[in-house]
Amino acid sequence: MILIIVDGIVKASWLFLLSVGLSIVYGVLRILNLAHGSLYALGGFVAAILVTDWVEHGRWEEGTFLILFVAAALVGLASGPVIERGALQWIYGRDQALQLLATYALFLILEGLQIALWSSESFQTYVPFSVLGNFALAGVIYPWYYAILLGTAVTAGLILWAFLNRSRFGRLIAAVTYDREISRALGINLRVVYVITFTIGAFLAGLGGAMSAPMVSVVPGFAVDATVAAFAVVVIGGLGSIGGAAVGALVVGVAQAWAVHEAPDIEVFAIYLVMTSVLLIRPQGLFAREAVRRI
Amino acid sequence: MTISRKMTALAAALAVALGSATYAAATLKRADAPQPIRIGIVSFLTGAAAAPFGIPAQDAAKLLIDRLNKGKVPAPYNIRGFGGHRLQAVYVDEAGGASQAVSNYRQLVQSQNVDLVIGYISSGDCLALAPVVEELKKFTIFFDCGTSSLFQKPLAYGFRTAGDQANDAIAAARYVLTVKGKSNVQSIAGINQNYAWGQDNWKTFSEAMKVLNPDVDVKSSLFPTLFSGQYSTEISRILSDQATVTYSSFWGGDLDSLLQQGIPRGLGQATQLILSTADTALPEFGSRFPAGIIVGARGPHGALAPEDNALNQWFVGEYQKAYGKVPVYPAYHMAQAILGAKASYELAMKKFKTASPTEKQWRAKLRGLTFDTPSGKISMTRALGHQAIEGSAYGISDGYDAKLGRVKLTKVIRYSPKCLTAPPGFFLYDWIARGFPGATCP
Amino acid sequence: MKRSGAVGGILVIVGIVVWWSLAPSWLDFLTAVAVAKGLVVLGVVLLIRAGLVSFGQGLFFAVGAYAVGFAGKWWSMHDALALAGLGLAAGIVVSLAIGLLVARYREIFFAMLTLAFSMMLYGGLVKGYGATGGSEGMPITPPTLLGRPFSSDTELFFFTLACASFMIVMALLYARSPLGYAAQAIRSNEIRVGYLGASVTKIVLATFILAGAASGLGGALDAMLVGHIDPDLTYWTTSGEFVFVALLSGTGSVVAPLVGTVIFEIVRSYALRWFPDFWQIALGGVLLAVVLFLPGGLWSLHERVLEYARRFARGNGSALEQAPARTRRQEL
């Protein structure tokens, strides 16, 4: 039982980092970014390359954690504005099918980019995962890295929440989320709000990837499976809500952990079963605001 | 309306022009059909199976074809090309699923005009192609895929120069019982990918184990999603299960991820790990590869290849010189396919007293052939002479040899094909359930 | 204008036949498979016309294909006509069952629910490998027609095309019916449709079933053509590709998907051959360009050309006559 909870929380931390950016971007831009997983993958690659270089030069090993953040920031700052200004700005308010298609195109381009750049390579960045050592819980060894993962997820969630709810700019974003036309009429610069929000989303995706890099072998296409998981989490939690993403991640994480420990045969279905049942009971997800009916 | 019709006429004319241009280009290519032998080589060049399998296989093919054309391969393969005919290779990506593979195969045969196709790593692709190979009547060697059902219907044009997956799993069960002692293996667990390869591997391993050591207790059989990469929960489960032996047929990136997450958590100490494809992870992990893990290479390849074999020494040396890495088992499988094709071609030249044997003569000589490879002798004795039987080998990792730049393996045991392969007429699982009748093992 | 859809349909079929007879032989198979997949794309287009994006249309593709697989395995049923009918029927039954659950949902929730169902089928097919052959899939015995085997690929191709034509006729009839117009109205404003007294859920359900039928038929044809089926048919990236081709083709007409799919498959196979490392980037780039500059898809290209031709023919056409074309373009 304790293992299910601990494993569930570990999984949930990863899922939260993976999906919270997706949720925020949807909340403000009203675009479901299918390429979110590819930004996650880029974060993984950049982190893996930078950390490998750092370690090869024999530098301070705990410093690799900083490198993970640097990698995420690089991905966010480099890709966020480019994608938002270069592609997304043309499709706001357009048909949802077209928006999905545009981000699917970005997904193809970014996945293709990974193949073109790193087609025959795999990167392993093991140092951050093992440098802090382990702790034992119920007879099972866990690395302290999982605590860092959880800490990062919680901190990111709290900072994001505080930023959106307490800062001036956060309130502007909230206003835009609530009503685009009125916000514009009030003089809010939508363009700035969109660029910044999307960059934050890209940073969070990159952070998810960077935090995963020490755990997995980073190869092209390693995020395709994660992409679907992220969609499921935000849909379960309710799109556009940080709390929703957190609860969605917890629900999925614990459900998967329970399946692995108690019923391994249904593990591959777990995420979809949870999503379907949640949507059948609450059609907008757990934490979604009621949509305004426009006639 | 009239305009619409005009537009369509224009479109039709365009289609005609485009079609005939392509057609003309295709016939032109056919007209100057050259003397050399054209080989289509198909492996994963993109996607998750590229880095661990597809690229090493392609590298091996490039190396061998170049050295064969220069006549620089040691005996018995020192004749240039195939019996003096230069080799030309066309490399094709296997990625994109079964339907794409079928379409690419048709293109390879019908427009690239190859004489032989060597390829296919994915079992699904092999199975989808088997009927197409027969339909297009093109000599084809499947070089790597592991499915046991490829020759359920006998094939006339299809061959496989490598063994199927069952060998590895049976050898693994025998090996761990020999090394640890029967009474010490009380329970087993498995973590395998959730698709045919993983499912078959676990079924074969656990069935073999139950027959060889009837008191064994199966603790858990985990099947995480292919390419999921996150195994934190699965590792917790294995650590808490405390099974004596844990078998995994994970490969490529998934295997690397499992080790990366598992090693720091003591996965290697909590249970005796058997990794049936760990050969590809040895160069990746190098000095970080923990000691005490049972390592397989899908046959006597890679780190488990026979060291006293001159062909193997040459192959490893040349491969290392060209690519700066040691060859892993997909490279060996590719070498087997190319050398088998060469041996049969030259045998056909001798037998039929001709400088360029027909495809039929060529195929006839691969049927039932025994030939030399870097992994030792390979015999095409199953499926009416179309399917090779391979032995297997396992060893235990024992630290890193910095001088040689490779992970040391001790207690290596080699298993002959006779120990691992069901005799003709036996269905694999029946053979196992009846206690391996006819098997001769070390 | 009313007859133009039927004329367009006939021209599309004739165009495919012309292409097929002229193309080099290695493209024959590709073209035939593209026609089969085109039916799934047709299903996606029908849903998009009602404002719904299905990210799980591969489900019905697989349902049709596995219906053929099991019918051959269990009942030794190999007649192509019966198998095509079976694929169609399986598509209808399954889409009715799933449609009842998802017809209430819109936008991303519809997309994710369809995706979830298709991925659950994927999981089931992989898990149940005793019956389904798992991830390796199962072989399909070459079909027969009225008791005799197909003598050549040509016959199977024309059979496929005949089935596709049947489905296109159905789709045209639907698009012309009050139901089809109501579905389009849902896309522009669902609540108004409700206020007009129509049952939005029923309209969506009917469209969903027609889309499922087309996809099931496409799956059955694909199974017979390829001769092998596997769970990848219902993996989410397969469904994503159908959506992709649908929008590339254009949703302005129900005959567009067939042309679009054939063009797409041919372009892709050349791209794979010429730029093995960059084809995905190229595809993504093309797609992005279509979204940004040609939101009506390839089909709208011919309308634009028509518009220019009309203007050219009349010196300069009056604004009144240009208006319909322009609104049509903005629909998407």
Your description of this structure?
The complex is a heterotrimer of chains A (295), B (442) and C (332). By secondary structure, chain A is mostly helical. Chain A has helices at 2-29, 36-56, 64-86, 96-118, 127-130, 145-166, 168-178, 180-185, 190-212, 224-237, 242-262, 267-281; strands at residues 134-137, 140-143. The longest helix of chain A has 28 residues, at 2-29. The N and C termini of chain A lie far apart (50 Å). The model of chain A has no long low-confidence stretch (mean pLDDT 86). Chain B has 15 helices and 15 strands. In chain B, the strands form three sheets. Chain B has a seven-stranded mixed beta sheet with strand order 7-6-8-9-10-14-15, with helices on both faces. Chain B has a five-stranded parallel beta sheet with strand order 2-1-3-4-5, sandwiched between helices. In chain B, 56% of the residues are buried. Chain C contains 15 helices and four strands. Chain C has helices at 4-22, 26-49, 58-75, 80-102, 107-127, 129-132, 153-176, 178-188, 190-195, 200-226, 236-249, 256-274, 279-293, 297-313, 319-330, and strands spanning 138-139, 144-145, 148-149, 228-229. In chain C, the strands form two sheets. In chain C, strands 1-4 form a two-stranded antiparallel sheet. Classes of the chains: A mainly alpha (295), B alpha/beta (442), C mainly alpha (332).
Descriptive key words:
heterotrimer, A: 295 residues, mainly alpha, two-stranded antiparallel ribbon, 2 strands, 3% strand, B: 442 residues, alpha/beta, 5-stranded parallel beta sheet, globular, disordered N terminus
Oligomerization:
heterotrimer
From the alpha carbons, calculate the radius of gyration of chain C and give it in angstroms. Answer: 20 Å
Proportion of beta-strand residues of chain B: 15-25%
* Number of DSSP E strands of chain B: 15
**Helical stretch tally of chain B:** 15
Helix content of chain C: over 70%
The two chains with the largest interface, and their residue counts, are: A-C, 48 and 47 residues
* Computed structural class of chain B: alpha/beta
- The poorly predicted ranges of chain B are 1-7, 26-34
Q: Could you give a short account of the major beta sheet of chain B?
A: 7 strands, mixed
Rg estimate of chain B, integer Å:
23 Å
Give the strand content of chain C: under 5%
Shape descriptor of chain B reads: globular
The tally of strands of chain C reads 4
